[in-house]
Amino acid sequence: MKSWISFLMPDDEYKEKKMLYFLAEGAVLLFLFLVIMIICSNFISLDTGVILLAGIAIFLFYILGRYTLSGIEYTDIATEKEYKRALRALKSRTASFVVLFGIGYLVYTMASNEANWYDFFGMVISVGIISFLLEFISLKKSYKKNKELL
Amino acid sequence: MRNNVKITRVKTSMTQQQLAKNVGVTRQTIGLIEKGEYNPTLSLCIAIAKELEKTLDELFWEVED
């Protein structure tokens, strides 16, 4: 089945089906959130910018959370050896990401004259930890799921 | 959906990884099909049947004992 969103979908049909479910669930949640916000706006004044950002956050975090917990990211990790190798690769990938993010963030803060070392290290360390944890949970879930399917 | 994919694959000494690669899906998808936790599309059923040199009936048709 062809659709304009096909280019975003994985080639594997099971993974594709799961992703479509996550996107559809996220869209329904976003719709409900917006309906509730429209109703609430009749009684209280709401900041449009905040509501729009919250809507985007709900949609993205829901899909990211479902994807991470579903164990469909690392489809070929099924043995202890493969798991340890993937974990090592994950650690080096996270380290590279943190370094690149740090450089990018440093350039941005220096360009905007808002350089503050506490903010800088806080941001870089937080992003590194969150990125590692999300990938680690996904890897662990995938490994557990794949092990049961052998 | 119960099926005979796993038995047939093991008989032909093919690994999940090999079958997955030959039919263009992931090893996880093959594992889920073998366990009956995912119902594949007809085109994937045909690809698996061709790869294992069996008919769709032999792999996917449930016969009551």
TrEMBL record, chain A:
The keyword Transmembrane helix applies. Keywords: Membrane, Transmembrane, Transmembrane helix. The chain crosses the membrane at residues 20-44, 50-69, 90-108, 120-139. It comes from the Bacteria. This is DUF3278 domain-containing protein. It comes from Oceanobacillus neutriphilus.
UniProtKB/TrEMBL annotation, chain B:
InterPro entries: Cro/C1-type_HTH, Lambda_DNA-bd_dom_sf. SUPFAM superfamilies: lambda repressor-like DNA-binding domains. Residues 5-59 form the HTH cro/C1-type domain. The keyword DNA-binding applies. It comes from the Bacteria. PROSITE patterns: HTH_CROC1. Pfam families: HTH_3. Keywords: DNA-binding. This is Transcriptional regulator.
